[in-house]
Every structure is written in C-alpha cells, then in structure tokens.
C-alpha cells in the first residue's frame, strides 16, 4: 500500500505560491506565519512531489487560507548561498516556470526586500505592492556627446501588469488594516542590477516609462517571473516587498537595518491579507 | 479643430474600437464577416490572434489579423459577428469567459473561484459527460466554505457564464443546441487552460 508521501498529490497542488529569494526573507515568512497562527509546515508528500520533478528548494504548506491553498517556496541555494535575481538555473525565471508547472498554481507572490525611490516620503520597512513591473534592462544604449559618452533610452521598455486578483487582495488589506508601516502601491523597476548609485536610480525613476501608476520602488526577482506567465494577457505574479534601502550610496548601511524590518513587514502584510480575506469571507453578508 | 475638438459631435459608433466600427459598417453594407482564432505557437504559449475574414459579394478579401483583445471581441459579438464554426466559437468563448470571470477572480481570489466554479459545474448536466467531464476528472479543488460569500461568488460566476450563453443566443442567433455545444466547449477549454490539463499531458504528467 502506498504511504501518504508516495500517493500522488491532487491537482492543482495549490492555487498560490509564495516565493522568497534570501534566507532573511525565508525566516521572516516563517516568523510571520507563526505570529498569525498559520500552519507553516513541511509536508513529506509535497517535498516528494517536488523532488520527483528535480526541485530541491525547501517548501512548506500553509494549508488553505480562505479560498487559497498556499505553498511557500524557500530561497534557492547554490553552494550554500542564496541565489538572488532573475537569471540562471536557480534564478526567479527558472523557479517561476518550474514551480508553476509542478503545482498548477494561478498566482505567485514574490515576498521580500526592495529599494525605495524617495528617502523621506518613504521609510525603511514600508511595504511596496507592484501594480506593474518595469523591466528596465530592455533599453537602447546610444552614443551621446555628453558625459559619460552614452545615454540610456528607455522608450522600448514594455510595462507588464501584475495579476489583478493579487493586487486587489493587497489593496483590500491596505484599506482595512492599520499597520505601523506605510504601504505604497505602484509600478516597480525590476532588473538584475544591485544598484548603489542615487544618480542611476534617479535616471530610472525620471526616464523609465511607468504607465498610469507612479514608480514606487525597485527590485530584482519580479522580472524573472514574467517568464512564468504562459498566456499573453494573464500574468501570474505580484511583487510585495519591504523597503530595505534606497539604491544609493548608503545602501550597504541601510541594509543593516532594513534586513530585519523589510522582509518582516512584507511577509506580515501578505499573510495578514490572506487571513483577513478569509475572515471577511466567513463573516460578511454579500449584497 | 482636430478629432478631440470634434468629439462631442461624433457619431455614436465612435465609442467602438475602430476594428469593430469597420466590421459593423461592412456588415451593414452586406459583407459576410466571420472570425477565426489563430494560435501561432500552440502548446508553448497561448498567444492568440483574431483573424477577421470578410467576403464582399461572395469573394473573400484579404483577412485582417490582430492580437486578441477582450474589448474588440466583445464589440464583435455585440454586432453579431460569429466564428467560422462551432469549434472556433467554443475556443473564442473560452477567452470571453476568462475575461468575464476576471472580475470574480479579483473579488474573491483565484483559489476561491476555483472551488466555487468546480462546485457549480459539478452540479450541472454540462459536466456529466463529454469534453467537459473529460477535463473535469483531472482537476481537484477543496469544497468551498458555505458562507454568504459562497452564495455571492457562485451567483456572480453563474451570472457571468450565463451572460455568455445569452450573447450566443441573442447576439449571435445560435440555436439552443448550438449554444449548449459552444458553451460546453468554451468551459472545457477554459478549465483546461486554467488547470493546465493539456500542458500536463504534453509534459507527460498525465
């Protein structure tokens, strides 16, 4: 007789995947799940399901929260180090494609740390919710008579909208719950660069097209999740991240503080959104 | 005065997407117009194009091919333009269903819509046999919690699905048998894509 771990999992395995890219983000997700009284546990059958498909990241099931069956996927590691960004065998692009195929999930939320664009109006620990992504690497680099001898032309950038069901969930949570951090909703710059330069950040902020939503920040993994979208107009992802730094010359100093607070707030915001939606669904009388 | 300055004097059709306006005027002039769905890279991704085929006095004209757009498709349905055959109509209405159910998805979330939709379909005769039943057997959802939200989500979902059937009947003038056949196909394609049934089969996972 097949043991629980050997029996095939029902399909789809889950409806929502939570991705993180660093161990700090992974720890924050676990801690906040515990804080909210959610299950956050390894499931031998789930682990086997992923292993059978060559997926070796740590995974946890959070069970069914409201209508969503949720699985969290830990950071991918190469030689013991977390793999950040979109590229490579373990980057967010490959991870998104593989886990979506392995689970049949309809959505992925990338939870973690991002950079803010406006020190002052934004604070370290504030949470950013992407309504869209701006894949800023898609640009033309053209010669220029001015220093440094070239200029970036971002007019070819195509703005990619996030999954509206996931954005709406975040907007509901922002409206109904009071947090000790601010929540900024808008377009997010996304690319593989680790930016330590206010001038470059400001160039992106001032010149990259951003559609109808203002740019609220930037990050590295979301651009990879665009690859996981199978259908042209049916995005699967949403990025929710806490501000860890401001992509400027103080970046490394800011991260010392941001590392603790940014992933914690982002994880809390996402999980609390799921929990409160579930409560509303059980309590509210619909018109 | 440019187009914007003249906007208040513009005829009612101006509110339609240009392609719909064009099709409407050609149809009024007596042309036969039908649409076809074209998936250039079927299997790998589902980029869909809408091919507008037009016959003027019985002679087929150069087709126009545009990227799928929910608004354009809704406009074409509104002016009574059918697909080439029932099979194509089913594929087309699968995309129309996806657009219609997005509002349910946004309000209640993907997982809840999955559960309520399957619950709704399981109770329907449409799901008892044929193409829809064949897709259904590869889908698992947990039973939805029976709260007031359940009733509202179910009603909204049923309303959106029913609305498409009404369009087939009233706008496209299909017979009741054909409406049933198109809707069964549309739901089967929609579920297949939503729950990756064919793609799992293609990857050897079924």
Description of the molecule:
The complex is a heterodimer of chains A (287) and B (206). Chain A is of the alpha/beta class and 287 residues long. Chain A has one domain: Nucleoside phosphorylase domain (Rossmann fold), CATH 3.40.50. Chain A has helices spanning 23-35, 44-52, 92-103, 164-176, 198-207, 222-225, 251-283, and strands at residues 16-19, 59-65, 68-73, 77-78, 81-82, 107-116, 127-135, 140-143, 150-153, 160-161, 183-190, 215-219, 237-245. In chain A, the strands form three sheets. In chain A, strands 6-12-11-7-13 form a five-stranded mixed barrel. Chain A has a two-stranded antiparallel sheet with strand order 4-5. Chain A has a two-stranded antiparallel ribbon with strand order 8-9. In chain A, helix 1 (23-35) runs parallel beside helix 7 (251-283) and helix 4 crosses helix 7. The longest helix of chain A has 33 residues, at 251-283. Chain A is globular. Chain A starts with 15 loop residues before the first strand and ends with a helix. The model of chain A has no long low-confidence stretch (mean pLDDT 93). Chain B is α+β, with helices and mostly antiparallel strands and 206 residues long. Chain B contains eight helices and four strands; from the N terminus they run αββββααααααα. In chain B, strands 1, 2, 3 and 4 form a four-stranded antiparallel beta sheet that branches. In chain B, helix 3 crosses helix 4 (110-122). The longest helix of chain B is centred in the C-terminal third of the chain and has 24 residues, at 148-171. The model of chain B has no long low-confidence stretch (mean pLDDT 90). Classes of the chains: A alpha/beta (287), B alpha+beta (206).
């Amino acid at each position: 007789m097949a043991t629980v771990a050997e029996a095939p999992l029902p399909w789809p395995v889950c409806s929502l995947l939570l991705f993180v890219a660093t161990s700090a983000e992974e720890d924050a997700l676990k801690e906040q799940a515990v804080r909210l009284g959610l299950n956050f546990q390894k499931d031998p059958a789930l682990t086997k399901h992923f292993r059978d498909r060559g997926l070796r990241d740590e995974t946890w099931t959070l069970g069914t929260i409201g209508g969503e069956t949720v699985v969290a996927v830990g950071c991918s590691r190469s030689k013991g180090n977390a793999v950040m960004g979109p590229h490579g065998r373990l980057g967010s692009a490959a991870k998104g494609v593989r886990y979506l195929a392995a689970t049949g999930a309809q959505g992925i939320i990338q939870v973690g740390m991002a950079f803010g664009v406006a020190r002052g109006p934004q604070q370290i620990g504030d949470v950013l919710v992407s309504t869209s992504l701006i894949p800023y690497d898609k640009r033309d680099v053209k010669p220029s008579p001015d220093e440094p001898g070239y200029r970036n032309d971002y007019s070819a950038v195509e703005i990619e909208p996030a999954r509206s069901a996931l954005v709406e969930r975040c907007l509901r949570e922002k409206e109904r719950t009071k947090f000790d951090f601010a929540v900024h909703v808008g377009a997010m710059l996304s690319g593989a660069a680790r930016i330590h330069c206010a001038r470059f950040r400001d160039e992106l902020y001032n010149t990259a097209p951003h559609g109808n939503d203002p740019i609220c920040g930037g990050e590295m993994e979301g651009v990879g999740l665009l690859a996981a979208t199978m259908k042209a107009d049916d995005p699967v992802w949403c990025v929710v991240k806490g501000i860890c730094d401001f992509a400027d010359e103080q970046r490394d100093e800011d991260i010392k503080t941001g590392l603790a607070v940014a992933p914690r707030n982002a994880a809390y915001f996402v999980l609390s959104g799921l929990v409160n939606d579930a409560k509303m669904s059980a309590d509210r009388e619909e018109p | 005065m440019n187009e914007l300055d003249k906007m208040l004097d513009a005829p009612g059709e101006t509110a339609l997407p240009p392609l719909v306006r064009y099709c409407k005027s050609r149809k009024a002039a007596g042309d036969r117009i039908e649409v076809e769905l074209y998936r250039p890279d079927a299997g790998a991704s589902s980029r869909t194009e809408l091919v507008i085929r037009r016959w003027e006095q019985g002679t087929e004209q150069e087709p126009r091919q545009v990227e799928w757009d929910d608004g354009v498709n809704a406009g074409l349905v509104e002016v009574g333009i059918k697909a080439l055959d029932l099979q194509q109509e089913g594929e087309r209405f699968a995309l129309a269903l996806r657009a219609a159910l997005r509002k349910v998805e946004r309000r209640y979330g993907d997982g809840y819509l999955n559960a309520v939709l399957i619950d709704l379909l399981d109770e329907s005769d449409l799901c008892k046999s044929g193409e829809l039943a064949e897709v259904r057997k590869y889908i698992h959802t947990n039973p939805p919690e029976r709260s007031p939200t359940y009733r509202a989500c179910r009603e909204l979902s049923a309303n959106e699905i029913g609305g498409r059937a009404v369009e087939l009947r009233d706008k496209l003038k299909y017979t009741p048998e054909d409406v049933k056949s198109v809707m069964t196909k549309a739901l089967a394609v929609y579920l297949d894509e939503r729950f990756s049934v064919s793609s799992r089969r293609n990857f050897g996972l079924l």
